[in-house]
Design goal:
Residues 68-143 form the Integrase catalytic domain. This is Integrase catalytic domain-containing protein. InterPro entries: Integrase_cat-core (IPR001584), Integrase_H2C2 (IPR041588), Retrovirus_Pol_polyprotein (IPR050951), RNaseH-like_sf (IPR012337), RNaseH_sf (IPR036397). It is a single chain. The chain is α+β, with helices and mostly antiparallel strands. The protein folds into two domains: 2-53, no CATH class; 75-138, Nucleotidyltransferase, domain 5 (2-Layer Sandwich), CATH 3.30.420.10. The protein has helices at residues 2-10, 19-28, 36-45, 48-53, 116-131, and strands spanning 75-81, 94-100, 106-111, 136-138. The chain has a four-stranded mixed sheet, covered by helices on one side. Helix 1 packs across helix 2 (19-28). The chain is elongated and about 80 Å long.
Length: 143
């Protein structure tokens, strides 16, 4: 039965089909045993070529929806990138980035370390003084 599965799955007639399809092909060739479906599913799951070349299906955990803003500079997203590998001592290792949802305008600045005071100063100088008080600043809370 292993030879039959191997030939129909990956042999000259093989199409690297899934477990149930392989079981149906085997039945059409006139072979049957009580655990044919389970055996075929196990065989297909262990096939190296199938695992390497099969399409990966990513199903979202919840429904996705777009976040938009009705006018420019109303809603900003904030993220901190880093730590990046510095080229010397006391180099800039972090980048604070704010992006406007409506225009995709970016305000960014590099820092050697990120503190609460630096974030507040950056938002005051680069967002509030330049574009006005935003309705919302969206963060991912460090995730």
């Amino acid at each position: 039965m292993l030879k039959v599965m191997a030939e129909l799955h990956e042999g000259s007639c093989g199409s690297h089909s899934g477990g149930r399809a392989l079981a149906i092909r085997i039945k059409k060739q006139g072979y049957f045993w009580p655990t044919i479906i389970a055996d075929c599913e196990t065989y297909s799951a262990k096939c190296d070529k199938c695992q390497r070349h099969a399409p990966i299906i990513h199903q979202p955990a919840e429904l996705m929806f777009s976040i938009s803003a009705p006018y420019p500079f109303m809603r900003w997203s904030m993220d901190i990138m880093g730590p990046m590998v510095p080229s010397g001592d006391n180099e800039l290792r972090f980048v604070l980035v704010l992006t406007d949802y409506f225009t995709k305008w970016i305000e960014a600045e590099a820092y050697s370390q990120i503190t609460k005071e630096q974030v507040e100063k950056f938002i005051w100088q680069n967002i509030i003084c330049r574009h006005g008080i935003p309705y919302e600043i969206v963060t991912d809370n460090g995730s």
